[in-house]
Design goal:
Number of domains of chain A: 2
Radius of gyration of chain A: 27 Å
Membrane topology (chain A): Lipid-anchor; GPI-anchor
Helix content of chain B: 25-40%
Helix content of chain A: 10-25%
Largest interface: A-B, 42 and 52 residues
CATH architecture of the largest domain in chain A: Alpha-Beta Horseshoe
Oligomer: heterodimer
CATH topology of the largest domain in chain A: Leucine-rich repeat, LRR (right-handed beta-alpha superhelix)
GO molecular function, one term (chain A): lipopolysaccharide binding
Keywords (chain A): Cell membrane, Disulfide bond, Glycoprotein, Golgi apparatus, GPI-anchor, Immunity, Inflammatory response, Innate immunity, Leucine-rich repeat, Lipoprotein, Membrane, Repeat, Secreted, Signal
Low-confidence stretches of chain A: 1-11, 347-366, 368-373, 375-380
Shape of chain B: rod-shaped
Order of helices and strands of chain A: HEEEHEHEEHEHEHEHEEEEHHH
GO cellular component, one term (chain A): membrane raft
Strand content of chain A: 15-25%
Strand order of the largest sheet of chain A: 1-2-3-4-5-6-7-8-9-10-11-12-13
Number of strands of chain A: 13
Distance between the termini of chain A: 103 Å
Number of domains of chain B: 2
CATH class of the largest domain in chain A: Alpha Beta
Distance between the termini of chain B: 72 Å
Strand content of chain B: 35-45%
Shape of chain A: elongated
CATH topology of the largest domain in chain B: Bactericidal permeability-increasing protein, domain 2
Number of strands of chain B: 25
Low-confidence stretches of chain B: 17-25
CATH superfamily of the largest domain in chain B: Bactericidal permeability-increasing protein, domain 2
CATH superfamily of the largest domain in chain A: Ribonuclease Inhibitor
Subcellular location (chain A): Cell membrane; Golgi apparatus; Membrane raft; Secreted
Chain lengths: 380, 483
C-alpha cells in the first residue's frame, strides 16, 4: 500500500474496538433499556474488564465475590488523566453498589477520587473489608462526592475502627440519607456526623451495642433539624419508655421511627412525651405481648406485625395499623398460647368499645379470628 | 480606418493579456530553496576539490611557435603532451552578486605542467621534455543563473578574466640549453595563451559539468501511484546580498489527471537567517495540494465492514458489540452485522502559524445495519471533527510530521434513526483512547513523509525546523558525499 494509504481503514475503528463490547458477557448484565447493570464477579478468575459493559448505565451493582482487590494496586496510573476525567464527567452513573470484596484503601481512594468527577448520588458499600489503611482524605484540589445517600452495611476498616471518620471528608455536606448498619457501633457517632447538617434519614440498625444509652447520649441529634427518619432496628433496645426518654433528651423531631427487631417492653411508669412530630412507629418483630400504652399522640402509622399480640388492639386514632403475623390472627398459635397468663403490665382495652369505631383496617383480619377472640377472655 | 485601428488595438491588447497570463506561471512558489554565503562557501570548497581532480586529467592543447635567432635564422618549436601534473587552487571564493548571480574566483593558484618539446631549424631536429610552473593564477568568472522553459535551473558563464603572474619553464634535453635562450619569449607566450586557455577551460567546465549537475534536479517526482510532485522552477534563482533564492513550484498533482490548483499561493517572507548553509521555505500549499489530491482520489473515504476485522479479534462489527453504549441497538436489531462509512466532507487543510501547525479534518461516520436480505438500514450519522496540533520535522531528507497530544475530537450527532445516542460519552471515550492508541499509529504513517528536492549525493545535517505564517522553514548544513 502507498504511504498515504497505509492508514488502513481499520485504524479509525481501532478506538471503537477498545470500547465496552460483547453482549455475550456473562459476568455483567445490562438490562434492555441500558439503565441497570449488574456484575457478578464470583468466579475464581473473573473477567474484570467486563465492567466496561456498565459504562452507560445509571445504576450499577457489583458483586465482588469476596475477591481480594489488591491485584488492582499494581496497575499503574491512568494513561490520560485529563481525558479520563472527561469520560467520568459524562457518565450517567447515579447509583453504585459494591458488595463482597476485600478492598485496599488506596484503591478505595482512587474510586472516591474518580467518583468526585461523576454525578453519582447514591453509594452503597456492603460486606466489604477495607485493608491497607489508612484511607487518605481527599487532597485540597479534589472536590467532594456530591452524594445524597450513603449506605454502609457490614463494612470494616482493618485496624482503625472509625470508617465514617475516614469517609466523611470525601462527602459534601449535602448528604441526605445515611445508613450505618452492621458496623459494630456502640453509640450514635456524633463527632463524625458533624458536617451533615441536612440529614433527613439516619439508619443505625444492626448495631447491638448501641442500646438506649447510645441513643440517650446522642446529643448531636438535636442539631439535625431536618432529621425525619430514624431507624434503630436490632440495637438492643429494651424499653420503649427509655427510647422515648432518649428522644426527649436529645430533642429530635423525627417523624418516622423504626425500632423493630428489638425485644421491647412497655414501662408505663416513666413519664415521657414522644416527640410531637412522630407520626410513624415501627414496632414489628419485637416480641411485644401487648400493645404499648403510651404511644405518640399524632401517630398515624403503627406497625405491630410479627409480635406476640394475643388480642387485637383498639387504636382508633391510628390510620394505618399493621398487625399481620400476630398470634391473634393465627388460630394455631393462639391455641398454644391460650394457657399462658397475660403479662401484668399490659392492659387490654374493654370489649365495649370494640365494635364501635373499629378502624376499617381491622375488619380485614377476618371474622373467624374475631369469633376466636370472643371465646377467649382473660381476666386479671 | 477607425475599425481597423480599433481591431488592431484589440488584438494587441489580447496579445498583451496572453503574455501577462502566461506570466502567471511565475506566481508565488510552493518551495523556496535559499543557499546562504556559508552554503556557497561549502559548495565552492567542494567544487574546487572536484575541479582540481578534473584538471589533473586535462591535457592542454599543443603549443607551438617560431623562433628567430640573430645570425642563426628561424626555426619552429612545438610543445606537446602538456599534462597537468599538479594543481593548487587556493583562495577560492564563490560570491553573491546581488541582482546578477554568482562570481567564482580563485587567486594565487598554481599549476605544474610537463610535456615534450621538439624544435626544428632547417634540417636539424631536436627534442626533449620540459617542466612548466605556472604561478599566481587568478581567475574570476561570473555565473548567470536562470531557469529554462522546462523549469530547470541553468547556469551560464558570462564574464571570465584570468591573470597569470609568472611562468617558469624548465627545458631539458639535447641542446635544450639553446631553447633556454628563448625562455623568456616562450614563457611570455605560454603565459598569454594559458591565460586565455584557462577561461576557455572554465567556461567549458561550467557548461559540461556544472550545468548538467544542476539539471539533475528532478522536476517531477513520483510520490506513489496516486500523486506526483511538480518541482519546476517558477522563476530564475535570485541573488541577494546574503543568499541565493531559488523558487520551486512544489505542487502535488494527480498522476491520472492533473487539474489546476484552486487557490493562490501566498508569498513567503523568509526571515533573514543565514547561520546555516541552506534553508527551505515550504508553503502550506504544498501540504494542501497533497491533501486535495488524496481527497479527490477518494483515499480518505472508507467503508468498514465486519469481514475487515481479523478473525482473531473477539469483537465483531455487529450491533451487540455496541450495546453498552447504544443500548437500543441491541433491542432493535439484535445481533446483526453493521457497516461504517467514513467520508471526509472536504480535504483536510493544514495551516502553519508561528510555532504551530493546525489540521482540522472533518469526517462523517454513517452507521448501517445490514439486514438478512442485504438491505442496508441507516442507524445514525455522526460528524467528527478534530483539531490536531502537529509538529513538523525532518528525517534524513524527507519531511515528516507527528501529532501532539492535546488535540481533541468533537462529535456531533447529525441524524439518528434509532433514538437518542449518548454522544458525549462516546466522544469522551474516543478522546481517551484516540490519543493513547490511535495517535501513535497515525504518527507511524506520518513518519514516511515526502522527499525534499535535493540533487544527488547530498545529505542534510544540523536540521532546524520552524513554522511561520503560512509556511514552514527548514534550515540545514549540507554534506556532500560522492562515492
Amino acid at each position: 500500500m502507498e504511504p498515504w494509504q497505509r492508514l488502513p481503514p481499520l485504524l479509525l475503528l481501532y478506538p471503537l474496538l477498545l470500547l465496552p463490547w460483547s453482549s455475550s458477557s456473562t459476568v455483567c448484565i445490562l438490562d434492555e433499556e441500558g439503565d441497570n447493570c449488574f456484575c457478578n464477579f464470583s468466579a475464581p478468575e473473573p473477567q474484570w474488564n467486563d465492567i466496561a459493559m456498565c459504562i452507560s448505565a445509571v445504576e450499577v451493582e457489583i458483586l465482588g465475590g469476596s475477591h481480594n482487590l489488591d491485584v488492582f494496586l499494581q496497575k499503574g496510573g491512568v494513561a490520560n488523566p485529563g481525558k479520563a476525567e472527561d469520560v467520568l464527567r459524562v457518565l450517567r452513573l447515579r447509583r453504585l453498589k459494591l458488595r463482597e470484596a476485600q478492598v485496599p484503601a488506596p484503591l478505595l481512594n482512587h474510586l472516591l477520587r474518580a467518583l468526585t468527577y461523576t454525578r453519582i448520588k447514591e453509594l452503597t458499600l456492603e460486606d466489604l473489608v477495607i485493608s491497607h489503611p489508612p484511607l487518605q482524605p481527599p487532597s485540597p484540589s479534589d472536590s467532594n462526592v456530591g452524594l445524597t445517600a450513603l449506605k454502609l452495611n457490614r463494612v470494616s476498616l482493618v485496624g482503625e475502627s472509625n470508617l465514617l471518620a475516614a469517609l466523611g471528608p470525601w462527602l459534601k455536606p449535602s448528604l441526605k440519607a445515611l445508613n450505618l448498619t452492621g458496623l459494630g457501633l456502640s453509640s450514635v457517632p456524633c463527632p463524625d456526623l458533624g458536617t451533615f447538617k441536612e440529614l433527613n434519614s439516619l439508619d443505625l440498625s444492626d448495631n447491638p451495642e448501641i442500646g438506649e444509652s447510645g441513643l440517650t447520649g446522642a446529643f448531636c441529634l438535636k442539631e439535625f433539624q431536618a432529621l425525619r427518619d430514624l431507624a434503630l432496628r436490632n440495637t438492643s433496645l429494651e424499653s420503649l419508655g427509655e427510647v422515648c426518654q432518649g428522644l426527649e433528651v436529645t430533642g429530635t423531631n423525627v417523624q418516622h421511627l423504626d425500632i423493630s427487631y428489638n425485644e421491647l417492653r412497655d414501662t408505663p411508669q416513666t413519664q415521657c412525651t414522644w416527640p410531637p412530630t412522630l407520626i410513624s412507629l415501627n414496632l414489628s418483630h419485637s416480641k411485644l405481648k401487648c400493645v404499648p400504652k403510651s404511644l405518640p399522640e399524632k401517630l398515624q402509622q403503627l406497625d405491630l406485625s410479627y409480635n406476640l399480640l394475643m388480642k387485637q388492639p383498639m387504636l382508633p386514632q391510628v390510620n394505618d395499623l399493621i398487625l399481620r403475623g400476630n398470634p391473634f390472627a393465627d388460630s394455631v398459635t393462639l391455641a398454644r398460647l391460650q394457657g399462658e397468663p397475660v403479662p401484668k403490665d399490659c392492659e387490654v382495652p374493654s370489649r365495649g368499645t370494640r365494635s364501635v369505631g373499629t378502624p376499617l383496617a381491622l375488619q380485614v383480619s377476618g371474622t373467624a379470628a374475631l369469633a376466636m377472640l370472643r371465646g377467649v377472655r382473660v381476666f386479671p | 480606418m477607425m475599425m481597423r485601428a480599433q481591431s488592431w488595438v484589440l488584438v494587441s491588447l489580447l496579445l498583451l493579456l496572453e503574455v501577462l497570463c502566461s506570466r502567471v506561471d511565475a506566481s508565488n512558489p510552493g518551495i523556496v530553496v535559499r543557499i546562504t554565503q556559508k552554503g556557497l562557501n561549502y559548495a565552492c570548497a567542494k567544487s574546487v576539490i572536484t575541479l582540481e581532480k578534473k584538471l589533473l586529467t586535462i591535457t592542454l592543447p599543443d603549443f607551438q611557435g617560431d623562433f628567430k635567432i640573430k645570425h642563426f635564422g628561424r626555426g619552429d618549436y612545438h610543445f606537446k603532451s602538456l599534462n597537468i601534473q599538479s594543481v593548487e587552487l587556493k583562495n577560492s571564493k564563490l560570491d553573491l552578486v546581488p541582482g546578477e548571480g554568482l562570481e567564482a574566483s580563485i587567486s594565487n593558484a598554481f599549476i605544474r605542467v610537463d610535456g615534450d618539446w621538439k624544435a626544428r631549424k632547417s634540417f636539424v631536429k631536436v627534442s626533449g621534455s620540459f617542466d612548466l610552473q605556472v604561478k599566481g593564477i587568478s581567475i574570476s568568472v561570473s555565473l548567470r543563473l536562470s531557469s529554462d522553459s522546462s523549469g530547470r535551473p541553468t547556469v551560464t558563464s558570462k564574464q571570465c578574466s584570468s591573470h597569470i603572474a609568472d611562468v617558469d619553464l624548465d627545458i631539458s634535453g639535447k641542446i635544450g640549453w639553446l631553447l633556454n635562450l628563448f625562455r623568456n619569449h616562450i614563457e611570455s607566450k605560454f603565459r598569454r595563451i594559458l591565460q586565455d586557455e584557462i577561461c576557455e577551460i572554465v567556461k567549458k567546465s561550467v557548461a559540461s559539468d556544472l550545468q548538467p549537475y544542476l539539471q539533475s534536479l528532478p522536476v517531477i517526482a513520483k510520490i506513489d501511484n496516486i500523486a506526483s510532485m511538480d518541482y519546476a522552477l517558477v522563476g530564475p534563482p535570485q541573488a541577494t546580498s546574503y543568499s541565493l533564492d531559488t523558487p520551486f513550484k512544489g505542487e502535488f498533482f494527480r498522476r491520472s489527471h492533473r487539474s489546476p490548483v484552486p487557490f493562490e499561493l501566498p508569498a513567503m517572507n523568509l526571515p533573514e537567517d543565514h547561520d546555516l548553509m541552506v534553508y527551505f521555505g515550504i508553503s502550506d500549499s504544498v501540504f494542501n495540494t497533497a491533501s486535495q489530491v488524496y481527497w479527490e482520489a477518494g483515499t480518505m473515504n472508507y467503508t468498514i465492514t465486519d469481514d475487515m476485522i481479523p478473525s482473531s479479534f473477539r469483537i465483531r462489527l455487529i450491533t451487540s458489540s455496541f450495546r453498552a453504549l447504544v443500548p437500543q441497538l441491541g433491542k432493535l436489531y439484535p445481533n446483526m452485522p453493521m457497516e461504517l462509512q467514513v467520508t471526509t466532507s472536504s480535504p483536510p487543510a493544514m495551516v502553519f502559524s508561528p510555532g504551530n501547525v493546525t489540521l482540522t479534518p472533518v469526517m462523517d461516520l454513517q452507521a448501517f445495519v445490514v439486514q438478512p436480505n442485504s438491505l442496508r438500514v441507516p442507524l445514525f450519522l455522526l460528524s467528527v471533527t478534530t483539531t490536531v496540533w502537529a509538529t513538523v520535522g525532518v528525517n534524513g531528507s524527507r519531511i515528516v510530521s507527528s501529532i501532539t497530544p492535546g488535540s481533541s475530537l468533537t462529535m456531533e450527532l447529525k441524524h439518528s434513526d434509532i433514538g437518542p445516542i449518548n454522544v458525549p460519552l462516546i466522544q469522551a471515550i474516543l478522546n481517551y483512547y484516540a490519543l493513547s492508541t490511535l495517535l501513535p499509529a497515525v504518527n507511524e504513517n506520518l513518519e514516511i513523509g515526502f522527499p525534499l528536492p535535493l540533487p544527488r549525493n547530498i545529505q542534510l545535517q544540523d536540521l532546524l525546523v520552524q513554522t511561520y505564517q503560512d509556511f514552514l522553514l527548514l534550515g540545514a548544513n549540507v554534506l556532500y558525499t560522492k562515492h
